[in-house]
Amino acid sequence: APSQVTELVLDNCRSSNGEIEGLNDSFKELQFLSMANVELTSLAKLPTLSKLRKLELSDNVISGGLEVLAERCPNLTYLNLSGNKIKDLGTVEALQNLKNLKSLDLFNCEITNLEDYRDSIFELLQQITYLDGFDQEDNEAPDSEDDDDEGDEDDDDDENEAGPPGEYEEEDDEDDGASDLGEGEEEEEVGLSYLMKEEIQDEEDDDDYVEGGDEEEEGK
After folding, report:
1. Alpha-carbon gap, residue 145 to 17, rounded angstroms
2. Which SUPFAM superfamilies match (predicted)?
3. 157: pLDDT confidence band, cut at 50, 70 and 90?
4. Which CATH architecture has domain 1-147?
5. Which H, E and C letters describe 5-46, residue by residue?
6. Under DSSP, is residue 103 helix (H, G, I), strand (E, B) or coil?
7. How far apart are CA 152 and CA 173, in angstroms?
């Protein structure tokens, strides 16, 4: 029964008229709700979910109306709005009433291009500790179950926060090129292990071809 569900993932479902059919107030125990990439344009029809703590809304087309969240999900601690149409601080101001909010993600939203974006958000939302996975002193948020997802998004974030314009840009682009793969590190590790193997094989081959070596072994 909906009243017993604590986690609900509706990623990639299609919403119609700003709502997902069947998602209603009967999900009273819901603590985690994910609606990524559902073409959600608005939160106006979000049901009241008083126990909800984590809400994933990435890759939708939400541009405002965030005050609904404080009314219907007052206990949110984590909110992901990455990849939405959020452009200005006024839109985000509506999250001030989410008193328990600790972590907010806005990767790939236009707002991240604003000058002093991070400082402004931390000033506006005094209650949050982590913005896009890092606190105000650039300490990374502790690992959570969805760490992999966050890792990939962090790479995107580097683009948004590329260093000063001008001479550094090219370097940043190259760095991003590697990190955008997301698995660049793994590939490098594979590369290294291959090299190690090749070296080991070379050494073995050398032994075979060193005549002296063979004679010694035969002598033994």
Report:
1. 32
2. L domain-like
3. very low
4. Alpha-Beta Horseshoe (3.80)
5. CCEEECCCCCCECCECCCCCCCCCCCCEEECCCCCCCCCCCC
6. strand
7. 16
The pLDDT tens digits of the residues spanning 19-37 come to 888 899 999 999 999 999 9
Which of 80-84, 104-108, 151-155 comes out lowest in average pLDDT? 151-155
Distance in angstroms between the alpha carbons of the first and the last residue of the chain: 78
As a whole number of angstroms, the distance between CA 106 and CA 156 comes to 11
Examine the pLDDT at 9 and tell me if it is beyond 50. Answer: yes
pLDDT recorded at residue 19: 81
Residues 89 and 112: beta-carbon distance below 8 Å: no
Rg (CA), the chain: 25
Domain range summary for the chain, segments of one domain joined by +: 1-147
The burial class, CB within 10 Å (0-12 / 13-18 / 19+), for 38 is buried
The Cα 138–Cα 179 span in angstroms is: 19
Torsion of CA 193, 197, 203, 208, to 10 degrees: 180
Rounded CA separation 161/108 (Å): 11
**H or E segment and range at residue 198:** helix 184-209
Distance CA(214)–CA(208), nearest Å, equals: 7
- Provide the percentage of residues in the chain whose pLDDT is more than 90: 59
Q: Tell me what pLDDT residue 1 has.
A: 85
**At 55, is the secondary structure helix, strand, or coil?**
strand
